[in-house]
TrEMBL record, chains A, B:
Keywords: DNA-binding, Pyridoxal phosphate, Transcription, Transcription regulation
Gene Ontology MF term list: DNA binding; DNA-binding transcription factor activity; pyridoxal phosphate binding
Name the record gives this protein: Transcriptional regulator
Xref: InterPro entries: Aminotransferase_I/II_large, HTH_trans_reg/aminotransferase, PyrdxlP-dep_Trfase, PyrdxlP-dep_Trfase_major, PyrdxlP-dep_Trfase_small, Tscrpt_reg_HTH_GntR, WH-like_DNA-bd_sf, WH_DNA-bd_sf
CDD domains named among the record's database cross-references: AAT_like (cd00609), WHTH_GntR (cd07377)
């Protein structure tokens, strides 16, 4: 046993037998050197070991404290994910995104909705008209926080959901990813704790990594999507600064968390004074009568920064999003002026025209209907041809199906085999850093069902069957 | 005297009397604790004090070393700028940019060229045409590294300057600021040393701050713009990782560095294996027959990342730039996928049409001619009405004039007084963190001379005269 492990074990014993109490400050590194007789390096390694196991936590410029739990995180549900494997995740995502780029690949793995559905002829007509008008290119009016009229229209849409909003609460960004990143930068500092869902859009992991945050992941609840108990446990245990969650038409799995749970999440955020960065980029892609409420609706304390975009509903090439920044507006604008500076003026002006003339609402109604039809068609076909041991998750919203493979089959293997045949799928590992091997994969079902897709799905299901048999 | 100062003084003495030699490793923190009998905190503070004075430098995971100089940086020309005042710089820039936003402000302080000059009717016609075409919005073809045809056209322009370039060397970005930021992130890590010019586009300082870099500034050479001697001194003294320089139509001062000096800079970069992020956003705004060569031309070792944009020549609202990334292309694309994801497809497609049909070259010829005329008109008027003690710097390129005020006048005071009268100017402090008070200001002279500008300039000159008299 290394010296540091020896020391870690000693301290752990003191925590477990109650000698060191929850939130009690540990001796400083120097003090511990004197107490234990070990070297500074050994003490540091021991503290890091205990921290990575969730038994102690660090407060900036203050030192180490005992966590509010003696449960070893290896056994408990919430896991601290060591982000040491970060570079591989990035290259994995990158290679993957590169591999499915290209017109010859069947886009079951794509993150983008079918261009046939999101393309709006009306919007392109408006673009065509205003593109000839010099006024449409004015830079000044479109500097951060962005075009005033567009912000007013976005604010109105929040108001219609019962969320009091002013144009000045909104900051226009270069897509939702930009909004999420800027929000996280405004809230969190290196070393802060962030809560992420165990399966999550890979951009969240990359953003946390880039900012040097400590990531605590929360597992999905098998029934409700969101595990309140685990969430509360995490907030009790760690000095969490911020969460980044997706609760409507969750990517990659697809669930939408119910209102009761959202209300309780809001209460917990308030109780622990934790900020939430809410990724709600699929908010318009609900199938029912009622648009699901965002967490922003339950936010009484300016703790929620709600991020969304037009890129999912009008085309990924658009790159116009926004954040409900509230009192963080100034800070986020600062950060914008240091990065993208502003969002293209013409696009902002075109959206003003498009939305204010009710074209957007009409577009969304048709889009939702078509998405539902297409997704159902994929679902029915796959469900009725499902190989033994598979489980297909269908949720009424978004355009993804989440397919759980039999225990013995790795989604990465299936991906590797299919990409050889020019079929793209999204292996679950892209969305989950804590699993070495994933049995899940995400299928994009926004496309109109046709022979090409049926063949691709047949190939996929056959491939799963082959792996299962071996 | 604090204990740490006492220790710092002792070590400094050892360096100055030659006991500790250049590049010799200092005792580790722990060793120094034992040697000196001081506490760890005292030793750390002493080392930091010596580091901030340039007497020692840190190497990651290795420790502290003696710098190659016994000259105290307080006396020598190159200065280490402590970036502790960083937040103020950001808010200053932010407040300033906000204050000159608005149509009622005379835009002498603007960073953007006159919209009358950069607006291209032809480009808007193209936009109008292709905006109606569904193909123009395709997301996949425009993901990082960006539209292939646009990258080919940009590569061709490099080739025409004698710089061998392949489409794959280029990455399209959301403007030049985005290109610069991505490049810096790809090259530098927190704690690395960066060389910046003493007067520089404020974005460079903000980017360095955001990444936690140690900034060494190099003063402008009164004759040549760039001080080679100081540059070599810095590279000798500090373990510099990267430089961020602007050498063509420098913002804010305006000079273009000659080819002889550029060649020597390249040699020094090679000798010390230091990367250069080259901000060349004004590259097209030369007034002579020959486009000034970028540092990329002299780069034999893939050390230069050349960044530029269409935003200065076609309108600030455009937000399309690029970086000659070479072997850093993959890394920069990774970073893009974590931030803006991609650049609007329509804009990329419109630029392909515009450039490939030679409209861009024609547009640039007219733009350059008009800029030269306008700038000359401003120059002649101001020069012939210059208050006593002022010095006006005119350089044949770009659209800024750099005005040095008399010793007793602060540019911030002038700015404060003028903004009350709805006239915007750029006080020198925005571009120079090391000066507490700046006597310089930047004037945007891209506009067609008219009565409004004459009145604004008269008010400015009168205001300077008033301050001078008091």
């Amino acid at each position: 046993m290394y010296k540091s492990e020896q020391l870690a074990k000693q301290i752990r014993h003191l925590i477990e037998n109650g000698t060191l109490k929850a939130h009690e400050k540990l001796p400083s590194l120097r003090e511990q050197v004197q107490i234990s007789g070990f070297s500074l390096i050994t003490v540091m390694n021991a503290y890091q070991e205990l921290e990575s196991r969730g038994l102690i936590y660090a407060r900036e410029k203050s030192g180490y404290y005992v966590s509010n739990t003696i449960v070893d995180v290896e056994l408990a549900r919430p896991l601290i994910v060591s982000l040491n494997s970060k570079v591989e995740i990035n290259s994995l995502v990158f290679q993957y995104l590169k591999s499915i780029q290209g017109e010859h690949i069947v886009p079951l793995g794509s993150a983008f909705p079918s261009q046939d559905l999101v393309f709006s002829k009306k919007l392109t007509q408006i673009m065509g008209q205003i593109a000839r008008n010099k006024k449409s290119y004015d830079a000044i009016d479109n500097l951060p926080p962005g075009n005033l009229f567009l912000r007013k229209l976005i604010a109105q849409r929040y108001c219609m959901q019962g969320i009091p909003t002013d144009a000045d609460d909104i900051v226009i960004t270069s897509g939702c990813m930009d909004a999420l990143n800027l929000s996280l930068q405004a809230i969190a500092c290196p070393g802060d704790y962030i809560v992420l869902q165990q399966n999550i859009f890979y951009g969240a992991l990359q953003a946390a990594e880039r900012l040097g945050l400590k990531v605590v992941t929360i597992p999905e609840h098998p029934q409700h999507g969101f595990d309140l108990e685990a969430f509360e446990h995490i907030l009790k245990t760690y000095p969490v600064k911020v969460c980044w969650l997706m609760l409507n038409a969750h990517n990659p799995i697809g669930f939408t968390v119910n209102e009761e749970i959202k209300l309780k999440i809001a209460e917990l955020l308030h109780q622990y004074q934790v900020h939430l960065i809410e990724d709600d980029v699929y908010e318009e892609m609900y199938f029912g009568q009622q648009k699901p409420l965002p967490m922003k609706y339950y936010d009484q304390n300016n703790l929620v920064l709600h991020c969304s975009s037009f890129s999912k509903t009008l085309g990924a090439a658009f790159r116009v999003g926004w954040v409900y920044a509230g009192k963080y507006s100034q800070h986020i604008q600062h950060l914008q002026l240091m990065s993208t500076i502003s969002v293209n003026a013409l696009l902002q002006n075109a959206l003003v025209d498009f939305i204010s003339n009710y074209h957007y609402e009409k577009h969304l109604r048709i889009l939702r209907k078509s998405l539902q039809q297409n997704k159902l068609q994929f679902y029915r076909y796959i469900e009725s041809h499902l190989p033994k041991g598979c489980k297909l998750h269908y949720y009424p919203g978004g355009y993804f199906l989440w397919l759980k493979l039999p225990e013995s089959v790795s989604s990465m293997q299936v991906y590797e085999q299919l990409i050889q045949q020019n079929i793209g799928i999204s292996p679950g590992q892209l969305f989950n850093v804590s699993e070495q091997k994933s049995q899940c994969l995400r299928l994009n079902c926004s496309f109109e069902w046709n022979e090409q897709f049926q063949q691709a799905v047949d190939t996929l299901l056959h491939s799963i069957g082959t792996f299962e048999a071996t």
